[in-house]
Specification:
Number of domains: 2
Number of strands: 14
Oligomer: single chain
Structural class: mainly beta
Strand content: 25-35%
Radius of gyration: 23 Å
Largest sheet: 5 strands, mixed
Distance between the termini: 4 Å
Shape: elongated
Length: 310
């Protein structure tokens, strides 16, 4: 009944469904590392040293936890064994709003560098993963230079940057046009709740009228993509290519989590006489993907499979 490409969770639901290290002589390596780490969904630049705070050296775990505490919304209390020197703490600020309700979902440490001339001076580079309601995800890259003393750490410099997805996962809703009587909410969570409550549910999809009816197709990305990346939602009568009609699609950018809305008259289920009609979610990587950025068919949904098929 439904066609999927790669890891795509196309859901139509009736209710809410809904992340300058080291010494100066390592600057070139840092630049390359940062470029690679900024492309989540591809191979990591190296095997992580640790994949939990418990696996990390104590000083790196303290720094990681202290940075994570400052990213959270609302910020958690300061780590008892970590101090931010000068303006280092001011550089670590939340990247989202309280309405996003992100919670920690994982950590990875890639670099733990001890200065050869002064072993108390160290560098840590890693990744923090977060998850939100409705399957939403976020990741950030962090790097910190710090000093150890007496069982604690003093963070002299730190920075966090979003990690944009190279393989964003789309979710699709089909909403009868008459069910949308008010303006679409302008926050991610409220929007998913709104369309989820009004969409055609799986359990009743075969009872959809076998004639053309006006619907609004809503596609949301569960992963954050870069400002230069592109999501396109298209209608087509063939499932293989990335091409299709897209002139009527409208887009909303919610801090990197994109939403596409496409209204039109469709037959959700028919007697098999109508040609197949597909909704395509096409993703084009941003500048972080390199010079050659090829559109990818990330999700495919067949609108009018004949009744009785699954």
């Amino acid at each position: 009944m439904y066609c999927f490409l790669t890891k795509c969770r196309f859901a139509v639901l009736a209710v809410t469904v809904l992340f300058a290290w080291g010494c100066a002589d390592m600057a070139g390596q840092l630049d390359q590392f940062g470029k690679k780490l900024s492309t989540i969904g591809r191979a990591e630049p190296s095997e992580p040293i640790a994949t939990s705070l418990e696996q990390m050296p104590d000083d790196a775990a303290t720094v990681t936890a202290a940075i994570r505490n400052r990213i959270m919304v609302p910020p958690r209390g300061p780590h008892p064994n970590a101090t931010f020197a000068g303006g280092a703490g001011e550089k670590i600020k939340p990247l989202w709003s309280a309405e996003d309700r992100f919670v920690p979902a994982g950590v990875r440490l890639f670099v733990h560098q001890v200065n050869a001339d002064d072993p108390s001076v160290r560098t840590a580079v890693g990744r923090l993963d977060f998850k939100g309601p409705f399957g939403r995800r976020a990741s950030v890259r962090y790097e910190a230079r710090y000093r150890t003393a007496g069982g604690g750490v003093t963070i002299d410099d730190a920075e966090v940057q979003p990690i944009f997805s190279a393989l964003p996962e789309p979710m699709l809703f089909v909403v009868p046009a008459e069910a949308i009587q008010t303006a679409i909410p302008d926050t991610y969570g409220e929007l998913l709740a709104y369309v989820g409550e009004r969409s055609v549910p799986f359990s009743h999809r075969q009872s959809a009228p076998p004639e053309k009816k006006e619907y609004v197709i809503v596609v949301v990305l569960l992963d954050q993509i870069s400002p230069s990346a592109k999501l396109e939602v298209k209608i087509s009568d063939e499932p293989e290519s990335v091409y299709g009609y897209k002139d009527s699609t409208r887009y909303i950018d919610m801090n990197g989590w994109r939403v596409a809305l496409l209204a039109g008259c469709f037959i959700l289920f028919d007697n098999g006489e109508e040609p197949d009609l597909f909704v395509k979610a096409v993703f084009t990587p941003g500048k972080e993907g390199g010079f050659i950025r090829t559109p990818k068919l990330m999700g495919l949904y067949c609108l009018n499979e004949p009744k009785g098929q699954s």
